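About this split. The held-out portion is used to measure sequence recovery: a designer receives only the structure tokens and must propose an amino acid at every position. Recovery is the fraction of positions where the proposal matches the reference. Here is one held-out target exactly as it appears in the evaluation file.
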């Protein structure tokens, strides 16, 4: 993890919305967060529907789903921010926050994802994200609860999400 990242939770980070606005993640303080790296042309893209269902079902209870488009895996997110937003709304009715396209691995990885990968490494301790739709579930205090593989169906996370919402 980069020496420039010296935070104990996600609330110290900013992200850029699809419209270019700077968003302080501190605005999500006290919420359970499901942070996902997404793509529009991936075999897992239909998970947008399930992410939206979870968001609509549990948003009123304190869940926020945050989508971060990424084009690092097989050029599966080639569109610009406007195209990404239009695609997600038209095809999956996405209303949860989506952010500007980022890198999740490598030298130019977004600081938020450097933090998430370090806090919840994957298989065998690897901090590398292997594919689109890797999911990070965070507690209300902004710390990482668990990392889930791309193939993990978002609906299968509902027990964990509800557990964290009840804390």
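Reference sequence for scoring:
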């Amino acid at each position: 993890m980069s020496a420039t990242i010296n935070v104990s939770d996600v609330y110290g980070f900013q992200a850029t919305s699809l419209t270019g606005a700077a968003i302080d993640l501190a605005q999500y303080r006290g919420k359970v967060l499901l942070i996902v790296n997404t793509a529009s042309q991936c075999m897992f893209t239909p998970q947008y529907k399930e992410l939206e269902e979870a968001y609509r079902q549990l948003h009123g209870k304190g869940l926020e789903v945050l989508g971060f488009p990424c084009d690092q895996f097989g050029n599966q997110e080639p569109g610009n921010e406007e195209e990404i937003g239009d695609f997600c709304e038209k095809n999956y009715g996405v209303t949860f926050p989506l952010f500007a396209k980022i890198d999740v691995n490598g030298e130019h990885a977004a600081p938020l994802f450097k933090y998430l990968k370090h806090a919840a490494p994957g298989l065998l301790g690897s901090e590398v994200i292997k594919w689109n739709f890797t999911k990070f579930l965070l507690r209300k205090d902004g710390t990482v609860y668990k990392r889930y593989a791309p193939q993990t169906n978002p609906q299968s996370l509902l027990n964990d999400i509800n557990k964290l919402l009840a804390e």
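Annotator remark: The domain at 14-166 is CATH 3.40.30.10 (Glutaredoxin).
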